Amino acid sequence: MLRNAAFLRYWFSSILNSFGAQVSALAVPLCSAILLQATPGQMSLVATCQALPALLFSLPAGVWLDRRRKLPILLACQVIQGLCLASIPLAWWLGILSMPWLYASTLVFHTCNVIGGGAEQIFVMLVVGRDKLIDAQSKFTMTDSASRLIAPGLAGLLIQWLTAPYAVLANAASFLLSAWNLRQTNVTEPAPQPSEKHPLREIREGFVFIWNTPLLRTLAWSIGLWHMLYYGFAALQILLATRELGMTPGLLGVAQMLGGLGMLASSMLVKPMTRRFGAGKTMLTGIAATVLGGFVLQATIPANWFGQPLASAAAYALLVFVYDCGVMLFFIPYLSMRAHATPDAYMGRIISTMRFLTVATAPLGALAAGAIADRYGVRTGLACVGACGMLLTAAMIASPHIRSVRPD
């Protein structure tokens, strides 16, 4: 793959997007929590706007992707995402930035993520082929880990010195540069086969295929429940760090950097683990790590542990390491299992239908966690997420369809 010019160009774009995403993952929530003093309920609405496009647009996007070339769609989505992010610092400079502005920006950005993300996953397979998908994803994970090591610390310092909107602007520039780079990619993309079927019939065929494939059916309900818990966790995590643990943006950025080591560890572990234990057991290991390191234990970190705020920050950083390692150990095998279970003619529909099924419940998790936190506190909201995560992990381990996936 390192002699594949198209892969190298795509890899460069993925590095740009990875660095930009790590910056905005810290900067956008801090715009809400610090600049606009958002409540837990408002933070949960931001998380809901992240998940809502998957519910609204995944199904029609899947049919549309199966009927169109993927690269032009990917380019258009990245340009719109860059402009959307650039609107946040512009609104701040004009004095009109508000929570509704962030809701709208988040909704547009993640609508493009649903459509462009589906096109991107298919485009990667065109570039590297199915058989090299895990190898490609492990390379992406290595560079993602580098961005997690460097970008959050830089973002935290940038936010502390210049405020969060400047960090968001850097991410906007990365999306526009990525689109320009991908525009130069020389990939022969075959024209999709024309379809005479009604789009609703093709959507139905996607559901039927997943229902009749036990592995995909099991992945749909289990990852759907995980996403519901994740969005509840994500809605409250920044509030836990800044308001409960008293971490500054700079300290939070440094703590988040340890997640890069977790991703680096997972990039080195995922290939030997899937080779020895199979994608299913590797994925279950990753799920357990996300639940333990993120959903369960982060809410138990005391403020000023042993009388030292840095001790609390160190505990938070260690759990970020475990959580980020787990995310990639579950996500990479999941992508591989889904790809191997799906024929080419269904690829766009299955990617989008699975995204619909796995993210459709996420707004419920975000809203429920925000409501609990508004009434009983942030830690109580996170504790509820953790308890449900433990039940989900046990149910997934008990499922034979994931556990029985053998090494290639």
Quick overview of this protein structure:
The chain has 408 residues and is mainly alpha-helical. Helix content is 83%, strand content 0%. α2 packs antiparallel against α8 and α2 runs antiparallel to α13.
Report what the structure shows:
With 408 residues, the protein is mainly α. It has a single domain (5-185, 199-403), classed as Up-down Bundle (Growth Hormone, Chain: A), CATH 1.20.1250. The chain has 15 helices and no strands. The chain has helices at 5-35, 40-66, 70-94, 99-128, 133-162, 164-183, 199-211, 214-244, 249-277, 279-296, 309-340, 347-359, 362-376, 378-398, 400-403. The protein is globular, with a radius of gyration of 20 Å.
Largest sheet: none
Number of strands: 0
Cα distance spanning the termini: 20 Å
C-alpha Rg, in Å?
A: 20 Å
**CATH architecture label:** Up-down Bundle
| Count of the separate structural domains | 1
Protein name: MFS transporter
GO molecular function: transmembrane transporter activity
InterPro entries: MFS, MFS_trans_sf
Organism: Pseudoduganella rivuli
Task: Jot down its keywords.
408 residues, Growth Hormone, Chain: A
How would the blueprint of this fold be written?
Blueprint: H1 5-35, H2 40-66, H3 70-94, H4 99-128, H5 133-162, H6 164-183, H7 199-211, H8 214-244, H9 249-277, H10 279-296, H11 309-340, H12 347-359, H13 362-376, H14 378-398, H15 400-403
Helix pairs in contact: 1-4, 1-5, 1-6, 2-4, 2-7, 2-8, 2-12, 2-13, 3-4, 3-6, 4-12, 5-6, 5-9, 5-11, 7-12, 8-11, 8-12, 8-13, 8-14, 9-10, 9-11, 10-11, 10-14, 13-14
GO molecular function, one term: transmembrane transporter activity
Transmembrane segments: 43-65, 72-95, 107-129, 219-239, 251-270, 282-301, 313-335, 356-373, 379-398
InterPro entries: MFS, MFS_trans_sf
